[in-house]
Amino acid sequence: MLENLQRLIQLTIHLIVNKLVPLTHPWGWAFIKALIVVSLIMLAVTFVTLAERKLIGRMQIRHGPMRTGWHGILQPIADGIKLLCKECITPAEADKWVFLMAPIVSIAFAFVPLAVIPFAKTFFITDINIGLLFILAVSSVGFLGNIMAGWSSASKYSFLGSLRALALMISFEVPMVMSMVGVVVFTGSLSMVTIVESQAHWGWFILSQPMAFVIYVLCGIAETQRTPFDMMEDEGSLVCGFFTEYSGMRFALFSLAEYINMFLVAILATVLFLGGWQPPFVSWPLFGFLNAVPSVFWFSAKLLLFMFLYIWLRGTLPRVRYDQLMYLCWKILMPLALLNLMLTALFLASKMNILIFYLLNLLVVVIWLSIYAKTQAWVSANNQ
Amino acid sequence: MIHLFFLMFSLIAVIASWRVVAAKHIIHAVLWLVVTFFSTACLFVMLGAEFLAAIQILVYAGAIIILYVFAIMLVNVKDLDIKAHFHKHRRLAKLLGLVIFAELGLVFLQRFTFLQAKGPLAVQQAEWGGNSEVIGRLLYTDYILPFELASIILLVAIIGAVVLAITQEKRA
């Protein structure tokens, strides 16, 4: 019944829009879809900022924002109005054009990857053959916004912040992409739609690729510069990182881009490892009734769960030192990602049962961890 | 429509690459270089080579440009008088410009016949469909030797970098 309702709504929208814009051209429909996605993501971002403040408040035994609206529900709107009304200051020494372009580059490249993401069974703006590669390519260019801001502000704090962010991003990109390759080897395609659909056959990839999932989550948090790994926003030593000199709406654009990047990492984790829009236990006939719920619900539920993980980690963990971060990236995550890739290739070549592969994966993790603990104990004993 | 887009992107590419050479500040030159890479990637997409376009953006605009920026920012270029070196090799530049112009003219005279010619990639793509699949297959079958050679060269470079870093640490 709900599917029928969904179809009815789609049809009405299609009819209304067809009267206004001739939608015989596929671009018209893509444009409408893009509008829907962008506005929904913007809405989600505004309220995730509120959720973050409320949740962190709860974790620190405070209330969080309470004054604007019922339990502070209007707080993000009030913040938005405040930022809109503030003056945009350009430092006298700044490189004017680069300074102006930096937030625009950041926000533009944060939005573009959303074009290839399947949000529901039938709802995606476009499905291209190289979807995953496209996302990686475009989001890696978004970091140019950081470096432009850091350089053009003519301030030492911004400059150091952007250099740190970039060093972090360059190193964590490597294990992150390596962890995705396992999934791509499984599906044999880079298209996001195919990746989600193949998880009906293989089961969610979090089961067959548990190492890759953990590596991806750690790298994703580091890439978006969130709290255990937020070296560039080290308030104690760097004020605010690369956007120290920005104010008003330009500052708002930077933080908006940051939140959209967080969403993108959560979306990618959902699509690659958590089955995208597929309901849980999809291959068991007993749970077939879960298919009656609109697929967009499952997608957003997984997405919001992942966002909660982000906020939870921020409220719980202290900041990691810079050399520890680099150690984690190159000496722990990188070999693990390669090991995972080798295991996956072995599985596909030997055509073993997938349940055995799940167990094998767990076994390898346990063995690896025990070897790691032994060597660490040996190293610390020898150092003394 | 496709001609309009082709004109637009090639115009952007030409203007941006002119700005790369003419920009007064070296960081501006690097940023214009990004624009050039992007419009070239758009041209690749229009030629049906999506994989190449994505790799172009990922590797050049994403990785190499950021390394350029790193190098430039950490070395203080403000002290260098960049403009003084512009007119040093004027004759050589004229000669090279003439050669490139002649080459371009030859291409125009051929009336883009190369566009109709089909390389091995285009033929295989018709058979197997999909861009990345074809490149993967060709790399691991017909062109395995050059591919392995390139990998060995890269491996040597990586080991070299590690060795350099280790010896420096010992001295300090």
Stretches of chain B where pLDDT is under 50 for at least 5 consecutive residues are: none
The overall pLDDT of chain A, averaged over residues, is 83
Beta strand % of chain A: under 5%
Instruction: Tell me the fraction of residues in β-strands of chain B, as a range.
Output: under 5%
Name the helix and strand elements of chain A from N-terminus to C-terminus, one letter apiece.
HHHHHHHHHHHHHHH
Greatest interface and its participating residue counts: A-B, 22 and 22 residues
Shape estimate of chain B: globular
Tally of contiguous helical segments of chain A: 15
Shape of chain A: globular
CATH homology superfamily of the domain at 1-88 in chain B: NADH-ubiquinone/plastoquinone oxidoreductase chain 6, subunit NuoJ
Q: Averaging pLDDT over every residue of chain B, what do you get?
A: 80
Question: What is the radius of gyration of chain B?
Answer: 21 Å
Plain-language structure description:
The complex is a heterodimer of chains A (384) and B (172). With 384 residues, chain A is mostly helical. Chain A has a domain at 91-351. Helix content of chain A is 71%, strand content 0%. Chain A has helices spanning 2-20, 26-59, 75-85, 96-111, 131-141, 143-152, 156-187, 192-202, 205-208, 210-223, 235-238, 248-273, 295-316, 322-350, 354-383. In chain A, helix 2 packs parallel to helix 13, helix 4 runs antiparallel to helix 6 and helix 6 packs antiparallel against helix 7. Chain A is globular and about 65 Å long. The termini of chain A are far apart. The model of chain A has no long low-confidence stretch (mean pLDDT 83). In chain B, helix 2 packs antiparallel against helix 3 and helix 6 (120-128) packs across helix 7. Chain B has a domain at 1-88: NADH-ubiquinone/plastoquinone oxidoreductase chain 6, subunit NuoJ (Four Helix Bundle (Hemerythrin (Met), subunit A)). Chain B has helices spanning 2-22, 26-46, 50-74, 90-109, 113-116, 120-128, 131-140, 144-171. Chain B is an all-alpha fold. At the A-B interface, helix 5, helix 6 and helix 7 of A face helix 2 and helix 3 of B.
